[in-house]
Design goal:
Elements (H helix, E strand, L loop, with lengths): L1 E3 L2 E3 L6 H8 L3 E5 H14 L5 E6 L6 H10 L2 E4 L2 H9 L7 E3 L6 H10 L2 E4 L2 H10 L5 E6 L21 E2 L3 H11 L3 E5 L9 H15 L7 E3 L17 H19 L4 E4 L3 H4 L3 E12 L4 E5 L8 H4 L6 E3 L7 E7 L7 E9 L6 E4 L20 E6 L2 E6 L4 H5 L8
Parallel strand pairs: 3-19, 4-5, 4-12, 5-6, 6-7, 7-8, 8-9, 8-10, 10-11, 11-12, 14-16
Antiparallel strand pairs: 1-2, 3-13, 13-14, 13-18, 15-18, 16-17, 19-20
Helix pairs in contact: 2-3, 2-9, 6-7, 8-9
């Protein structure tokens, strides 16, 4: 957001307060121009002959956002058969979708096979089952590189104790299963975590994966996952995509030359593409003074935005209704009957009942992790596209909450 004439506006000049008047609060708003900017920036950072970006749709699964990604040229990274189905509904061709589940049943793998998407296998028992049943379908293998990286233990998924992927030390067993079943490997994949700042962690994983890849002659792509850090706090650091892109591109070109042919380099960004595009707008229900603390109580909670409570994540918060007011300190809390504190001792321009607060960087893992705890309803979603606001999800109603409940006579 930018400030013009003392009022905060989205990048295209739309006033978020007018969106609240039109659609109500709480409200998620996504700016397509920011998503496009991030996609182009990432795409231009890697100078290789064949590059594919697969949007990690678990970050934001609204079908209209998926359609935008399709228009930008993205593929899709999915983790459930339901995400696969949504991707197909959004217009992605089956071969543009990678299915990378964790610990699912063979029945779900079969459902994905029947939908024609690419398959990424992350454990040895599944690889053997799959090879016996579908030896004619090439697969990708998810490797656990045993690298601790990321901004949070819960989002670090490539360390030795992680449930994700096949240990790099078990690759000889992968080869044995493939030899026994006739299965072919079309790709090799890793993902070490989220919010990775150090290029050294990326490069260490890249080196490990490329060293493993050289032993498999039928590859068509190498997938290095994602985890690029975006700025959350004022003056926050972020992954230097341009520097990282130069390093990885140089290494990948050398690998392809040694391999004997050009492969496709794949990344699966989620947060990098949509985090900064999202704003979450909430209304202040009350300003509550205790002996030591001033609480700004808002009409939302961890049912709508769980990242601060689940990951300890920081979201910049702005008072859109009084941006030039005197700065004071508040605990911003929700209306859930639990301790649902968004921020502690946060400096905000003076807050009054009825003010609209904005949580920034609310595009990734925010609405997609929302729930109905306390029987609270899910908010609406709006996409700003080509200078106009579009409702892309209606606000939930009580009828929606009751739809699948079956009432019996008591």
């Amino acid at each position: 957001m930018t400030i013009e004439h003392g009022r905060m506006q989205l990048s295209n000049g739309i006033d978020p307060l007018e969106l609240v008047q039109k659609y109500g609060a709480p409200l998620y708003v996504y700016d397509a121009a920011v998503i496009e900017r991030q996609y182009k920036r990432l795409h231009s950072a890697f100078k290789v002959k064949s590059l594919r970006l697969n949007f990690a749709c678990k970050a934001l699964t609204n079908v209209s956002v998926l359609r935008l990604m399709k228009k930008l040229g993205s593929g899709l990274d999915t983790v459930s058969v339901q995400e696969v189905q949504m991707g197909l509904m959004a217009g992605f061709a089956p071969q543009e979708i990678m299915f990378t589940p964790s610990g699912v049943s063979m029945a779900e793998m079969e459902a994905a096979v029947n939908l024609g998407v690419r398959i990424n296998v992350d454990n040895l028992p599944m690889l053997e089952q799959f090879g016996l049943k579908f030896p004619h379908i090439p697969v990708c293998i998810r490797v656990n590189p045993h690298i601790m990286a990321g901004g949070n233990l819960q989002t670090s998924v490539g360390h030795v104790d992680s449930k994700f992927g096949i240990s790099v030390h078990q690759l000889p067993l992968v080869k044995r299963i493939m030899d026994n079943t006739g299965l072919k490997m079309e790709g090799i994949h890793m993902h070490t975590g989220s919010d990775i700042l150090q290029s050294e962690a990326f490069m260490a994983g890249t080196e490990l994966l490329l060293n493993a890849a050289k032993d498999y002659p039928d590859l068509s792509f190498v997938n290095l996952g994602s985890g690029f850090k975006v700025p959350y706090k004022p003056n926050d650091v972020e992954t230097d995509i341009e520097e990282l892109g130069e390093k990885i591109s140089t290494r990948f070109k050398a690998f392809c030359k040694a391999y004997g042919r050009e492969l496709t380099l794949v990344f699966e960004p989620g947060k990098f593409l949509v985090s900064e595009a999202g704003s979450f707008l909430v209304r202040v229900n009350a300003v509550k003074q205790t002996t030591s603390t001033v609480f700004a109580c808002v009409d939302s909670g961890f049912n709508h935005l769980i990242r601060p409570m689940f990951y300890g994540s920081y979201h910049k918060i702005s008072n859109l209704s009084n941006p030039q007011g005197k700065m004071q300190h508040y605990n911003i809390v929700g209306y859930i009957c639990e301790t649902d504190t968004f921020a502690t001792n946060r400096a905000l321009s003076e807050v009054h009942e009825g003010d609209i607060l904005c949580f920034h960087n609310a595009g990734a893992y925010c609405f997609s992790m929302a729930n109905n705890y306390n029987s609270r309803l899910l908010p609406a979603e709006v996409l700003i596209y080509q200078g106009k606001d579009h409702l892309i999800r209606e606000r939930q109603t009580l009828d929606d909450l009751l739809r699948n409940q079956v009432q019996i006579e008591i």
